[in-house]
């Protein structure tokens, strides 16, 4: 028979833990909450004993919280009844993978939870800060605020905005759900059940099997949240469920953005089930597990899987966020083609490759004629749309894998062409120039035509170790200058070698 099991949690976890409805699933478990201290000073055992446990009968106590906040309790672990402290390095590690949280910490973000945010004013007062001193303190130690959002507190985002405004720092939100917490707490409960069964000489094979599944799930999910490519995340999700359940088939069927045809509910199959994977209310796809070798354990497998899908959804969203950040770093935000940073990296790579292969490298530089007048006449929004249209034409004419089209700055674009002769680069430049003319984008203030036109400069050379990519850039810039100085809306070509430009 399983003894009375008490789980003590920080009050900042209350909404999340209560959402799990632990006592309904495990009637012998009682969850209690100790006052949140955030380490000032650490919680003392006497506080738990006198104010909470009192004369309560219990067989096991598990305390969940941050190591620093529980530093005054762990000295009693050896002298009390079976008593264990699960002191995480940071308390929010109970909700999310420490490595994932550490990634944001390296960016200088101060991490908070919904429970902490609901009392942020009290902590500001406790620390003796007013608004000015709080802004000074946080600006010296942090670049922003990160909310580990469990979804349990509907006011979390509002509290985040208020706290962020108060200290004058930007904020980010990472949705993590309750899956990680559910697995963690279940693992603790099952471990105690095994100890109780062992003490009473009851067969524990089944409990050990269940516990090992939960432990394996936790370990696998910790690695999952570090994967940064969405396709790899989905592959690893299917691998995890294959390892845990050994079904005949595991598949993930993604939902298109805005697709509302798939209902967000669990479907039971004869030897499996279909689970929705979502994050922050957005349905991402359906995970189908079928052909279970032991269908008699279907409900157990379903319970375990249900506790995992929140983390799976979080991992997919994290991978998408990572890709968005990566795209922002290498892509021009306005035109969605490569930015100057990407171009600078690419030209150095291609310069070295063409040096090894002794093949020609061509560069096209182009400029929208009288673009400042265009902005003055039609406004900057129209100017942005004009640049987007130009970028589309450039990109549609450059399809080879080694080629790159980039926005170099303002209204200036560049095209790098590997293994390309000067005459072929000239023909491409002319095709692009004529395509822009055919768009007939009105430009009443132009001194060339009543519509938008481009001036083009082409440079070509065989790279050598004695030259550099900057020589090619200078040559193309010279050709572009000549195009603009001789009337614009034309293409000029220059070549160079170790002796100069011709």
Write a compact overview of the structure shown:
The protein is built from 17 helices and 17 strands.
| Relative strand content | 15-25%
> Roughly how much helix do the residues carry, as a percent range?
40-55%
Provide the residue-averaged pLDDT: 83
Indicate the CATH topology of the domain at 340-501.
Alpha-Beta Plaits
Give the CA-CA distance, first to last residue. Answer: 93 Å
CATH class of the domain at 340-501: Alpha Beta
Task: Calculate Rg over CA atoms.
Answer: 31 Å
Helix-strand category = alpha/beta
CATH architecture term of the domain at 340-501: 2-Layer Sandwich
Number of strands: 17
CATH superfamily of the domain at 340-501: Reverse transcriptase/Diguanylate cyclase domain
Unreliable residue stretches: none
Oligomerization: single chain
Largest beta sheet: what is the strand line-up? Answer: 13-14-12-15-16-17
Overview of the molecule:
The chain has 502 residues and is of the alpha/beta class. Among the domains are: 1-95 and 178-218, Rossmann fold (3-Layer(aba) Sandwich); 340-501, Reverse transcriptase/Diguanylate cyclase domain (Alpha-Beta Plaits, 2-Layer Sandwich). Helices cover 46% and strands 21% of the residues. It contains 17 helices and 17 strands. It has helices spanning 14-19, 22-25, 45-53, 98-106, 114-117, 120-126, 131-141, 156-167, 179-199, 205-224, 230-245, 298-330, 340-357, 371-378, 380-396, 422-439, 469-485; strands spanning 5-10, 29-34, 60-66, 83-88, 109-112, 144-149, 171-175, 249-254, 267-269, 272-279, 282-290, 361-368, 404-409, 412-418, 454-461, 491-497, 500-501. The chain has a six-stranded mixed beta sheet, sandwiched between helices. Strands 2-1-3-4 form a four-stranded parallel beta sheet. Strand 6 (144-149), helix 8 (156-167) and strand 7 form a beta-alpha-beta unit. Helix 10 packs antiparallel against helix 11 (230-245) and helix 14 (371-378) crosses helix 15. The chain is elongated and about 95 Å long. The model has no long low-confidence stretch (mean pLDDT 83).
